[in-house]
Amino acid sequence: MKYTPNSPAVVEDMLRSAGFSSLDELFKDIPEAIKLKRQLNLGRGCGEIELSRELKGLAAKNLTTEDYPCFLGAGAYDHYIPAAIDQLLLRSEFYTAYTPYQAEISQGILQSIFEYQSMICLLTGMEVANASMYDGATALAEAATMACGVKKRRKILVPETVNPQSREVVSTYARFRGNEVINTGSADGQADLSELEQRVTGETAVILIQSPNFFGCMEDVAAIAELAHQKGALLVVSCDPVSLALLKDPGELGADVAVGEGQSLGNPLEFGGPYLGFFAAKKELMRKMPGRIVGRTVDQNGRTGFVLTLQAREQHIRREKATSNICSNEALNALAATIYLSLLGKQGLREVALQCARKSHYACDRLLQSGAFEPAFRAPYFQEFTVKYRGSVEKLNAALLKEKIIGGFDAAQCYDKLHGHWIVAVTEKRTRQEIDTLVAKAVTCSD
Amino acid sequence: MNIPKDLLYTSEHEWIRVDGDQVYLGITDYAQHHLGDIVFVELPELDTEVVTGDSIAVVESVKAVSSIYSPVSGTVMENNEELEDSPELLNEDPYTNHIAVINMSNPDELEDLMSPADYEAFCAEQE
Amino acid sequence: MTDPVKTIFNRSVPGRTGFSLPACDVPELEPNEMIPEQFLRSRAPGLPELSETDVVRHFTGLSRENYGEDSGFYPLGSCTMKYNPKMNEDAAALAGFEKVHPLQPEQTVQGCLQILFELDKMLAEITGVERMTFQPAAGAHGELTGLMMIKAYHESRGDTKRTKILVPDSAHGTNPASSAAAGFDVVEIKSDKRGNVDLEDLKDHIGEDTAGMMLTNPNTLGLFDEHILEISEAIHAAGGLLYYDGANANAIVGVCRPGDIGFDVVHLNLHKTFSTPHGGGGPGSGPVGVTKKLVPFLPGPLVEFENGVYRFDRNRPGSIGRVKTFFGNFGVIVKAYTYLCSIGAEGLVQVSRAAVLNANYLRVKLKDYYGIAYDRACMHEFVLSASSQKASNGVTANDIAKRLIDFSFHPPTVYFPLIVHEALMIEPTETESKETLDEFIDAMIQIAKEARTDPELVKTAPHTTAVSRFDETRAARFPILTWHRDEG
To answer: In angstroms, what CA-CA distances link C302 with C312, C327, C459?
Structure first.
């Protein structure tokens, strides 16, 4: 199938108008030596019917969370996505639009971004937010970079309770910028506070913390904020946006920057992307923030409207002095999050969060009661928790898969000392029956 | 372009007014004109030691950013805090609104700066 | 008259919601029975409260105040706003792609792995490199990844003095920004009178400290560098590596390959050349490809195919490390894959041919009405200048852009590249018909005439939109970035 509409006759006509004698002449600036003399090895191309068949065939080779209930989290969560979101995202004026640089014909996107920024600030308790970053991990890495720039210090403290993939991204970014990542340990599933206290010095730019953390445990963010601020360092908190309907927000706890993964807000699992990094900060960091920002203003007739603003921070103006090189972001995913938060609203998000908490606590209690599992940590949790299994978690998950259940995360994949630790996520989508079946099958598998 | 005769200039479109051991520093009419509406000024930190050529401040407009480079070596003694709330002062009157005041450590460096005539010729070349 | 703008917050009515959950079928514990009080917030966040109807009307209304590629011609230079095939959207929305957790066991995601594997091969074939990574989420992200690999490569050979990346003065801002983020110093190289990289200036700046050079080819002027092979040789002779910014790949796909020119690292923009939609600013995808010697440095895991099974290869000790979670923007990758399957090898060549023809057709028809920055055949885009309009009547590139809106066109890119005064960068893409191009030509000629005979009309455009030009100064001086109850 081809999307070039002009017929050969029209093409001929246009060639002549443009002063060329052939299509080949269009490429005369390309040296003969490097011109392709063969067709690329790419396949013939096909029409919609064959295309549809092929893609459906590939999709059919994958197991989905519609087929089996999913108890796997570890950074991506199976929440319900209301039907209205997909419908609205298919409005082509949204999804086929470019970045809203021409404000007069982009008020739709610009206003929705303004609303998104506002909602992120409401959730996180911060004062300003940007229009999105690639994902939670890069948002965290960019926050660390920003903190190092602002503080003119190079050291970044990260406990091992932060998502391992996020920590790896932070490390990659830091290494090339010439910043230093210092990993600290955990105690009973939470960041080891006494170790943090020892390691934070006048050379620390920032402490990064995730709460709830990778094990599902809540951290003592206020205490860590104090540790950071005492030494003049910043605190960046990576948080779960749905949990913020119930839990104290990073702003209240003393964070300077709040980031996180927004996939839980109306975005599908989609095998890992596109996801949504949210980034919010205190007002005094506004002009140092990476990413696009939308602001409210008026037009020549006094009408309220929205524009991309504070562009002097960005790469197209500041070039090598920009805080970040980010250009394209996750705009459509941010729109999905905005619609999600609008549909659920104040009461709805609280309901979803409550059900996540209730169902995860129910699941955890039942697993512990079964005798096949022991508690791993004592810290409180929201929708994800860690339990200790007496056998091989790998075998447990394999057996559960045969029973048509996607089991939790095997912590041993990332933490050598945590063999037998199983990190289970339970969202509002899980039913009591699914949870009871999980428990029953887990027990059978362990016999 | 307005180019006062009692000031010295740099190729970065900055003006300097000498006052004993101190210099007052700002941006020229040419600079403010090319930047457009100035929206933010990142003022230098007080009591910092600077060397000629160090970037000590930043002036932002809607569509551009300009670093301000120290024309002399010395210590930053003052910055013009009025610019924090009213950056547009640099557009309105770039010569009465300075950005910073520096205590010179080596007044001989003033000899390297441009006279008003040299600066005028320099601006003409830029166009 | 009251201000007609209503944000979603203005439409909020307490007690409403647009979504309902099934009743909770597990014990309905109170929050403080599950989580200690000190972790709980005292008040729910002030999100708006609306019915589904309200929400749908609000966002539908917003969409009608927006202009997408589906709305009309969108000739943004270097953005490649080609038509986004709907089959792409259908494919990405299949449950077998959408409802798959990235950490599921490999045997349950063979279809996903197959797409990553196949597209890797296809894009490597198109660009003439060895292997790709799909982790980078956008072009700039790809640039950063590629530059990190260049640095890691030099470091692995004990060569730590290579601190500089050379970048042409016509380069997109992400090039120097990415270089700085990768820990390099940036050296700007001038362009010559024909719009190529100035070879003399280049030779003056190449040295032992050259880590590499970033090039877009054709460049942001839409010109294929006439000395590209010499540049490649000069950089390599000095021990540097050559980076290809694929933003303008639409001009050369199927005709020549960056790998064959001598580029060591390439990135592609799936949301440009490969037809995935721009989404109002994202998501994109910026896969990075490398020649053999750089493969060990790629962020992983990579997908391998052995004994009929696709699997992740996580054992990659030389890798620079992750630049993102999971495997990249998979949903976008599916769309690019679908597109390539649909157009095939022959279709790809037709893409670049039609893209270059359409651009030259416009160039030839418009160059007598506007200044043409470089009077030579262009590739998929070209740059006009409104300098003479500005000199005569003060009509700027911005004014012309705004006036085009009145003709129902999206404006081209303006004020970029920086080396052309009052620049208008126009890229029609291959998916436009001659009729559309002729309409655009007529509009541009009309505006050129208005600039002479009725400049005020152009300077005060647009006239047909609900809003007029905005006070951007105020937005930057007194930023209002969130909704506040008292501000309405």
So the answer is: 6, 9, 53
Whether residue B40 and residue A312 make contact (CB cut-off 8 A), yes or no, is yes
* Span C197-238, pLDDT tens digits: 999 999 999 999 999 999 999 999 999 999 999 999 999 999
Chain C residues at the B interface, defined by Cβ less than 8 Å, are 415, 472-473, 476-477
Q: What percent of chain A has pLDDT over 90?
A: 95
CA B43 – CA A96 distance, rounded (Å): 41
User: What ipTM was reported for this prediction?
Assistant: 0.97
What does DSSP assign to residue A249?
P
Fold held by B8-107: OB fold (Dihydrolipoamide Acetyltransferase, E2P) (2.40.50)
**What pTM, to 2 d.p., does this model score?**
0.96
**For residue B53, what is the DSSP state?**
T
Which of B40, B42, B63 lies closest to A317 in CB terms?
B63
The nearest CA of chain A is from the CA of C452 a distance in Å of 24
Q: Which residue of C has its CA nearest to B62?
A: C473
> How high does pLDDT run on average in chain A?
96
Choose among A287, A317, A321: nearest Cβ to B40.
A287
DSSP state of A49: H
pLDDT for C1 beyond 50: no
Write down the CATH number for the domain with range A83-339: 3.40.640.10
- Residue A266, C-beta contacts closer than 8 angstroms, at least 6 positions apart: A79, A81, A82, A85, A336, A337, A339, A340, A341
C303: pLDDT strictly greater than 90:
yes
For domain C386-473, give the fold. Answer: Aspartate Aminotransferase, domain 1 (3.90.1150)
pLDDT at residue number C28: 97
> Best residue in B32, B34, B35, B37 to probe C by mutation, most C CBs within 10 Å?
B37
Tell me if C5 and A132 make a contact (CB, 8 A cut-off).
no
